[in-house]
Amino acid sequence: MQQTTALDRIDERILSELAKDARQTNVKLAERVGLSPSACLRRVQDLESAGIITGYRAVIDRSRLGAGFVVYITVGLSNHTKESLQAFERAIAGAPEVVECHTITGAIEYLLRVEVADIKAYKTFHTDVLGTLPHVSSITSYIVMDSSKDERA
To answer: Which parts of the sequence belong to the HTH asnC-type domain (predicted)?
Structure first.
């Protein structure tokens, strides 16, 4: 079981500032949260050691790479064995169009976020990838028209 770590207000401010801009210098971060640079660095390192900060990422505008068509897909499986779930997850791990795959509760097993160039590319993914996987019993697509809020890093 994972142990939770109590954060104080300064830790919360550090996390908030890093979520906005993880590339800022330690000196700038320290200024923004009201600490000396050495105290700020120590706190960031403690947050990393505790597993609260697990990494830093580049936020990529995939539409500039030709993958601006975003679809959320729910996938139901007809077979719920461990082997079937693992086989599905392996297949999805090998699909570059899938940028997120979540196992969820409810009437279906998976929620996928797929990013492709356009509807034609999505149809190809739908048919040639999802349509060939054993045990896939339902596919429901939700096309993203606009995103008014997206805080994923």
So the answer is: 7-68
Q: What is the pLDDT of residues 70-93, one digit of tens each?
A: 999 999 999 999 999 999 999 999
pTM of the complete model beyond 0.85: no
Architecture of domain 62-143: 2-Layer Sandwich (3.30)
Instruction: Give residue limits of the domains in the chain.
Output: 9-49, 62-143
Residues of the chain scoring pLDDT < 50: 1
Dihedral pair phi/psi, residue 105, rounded to 5°: -95, 160
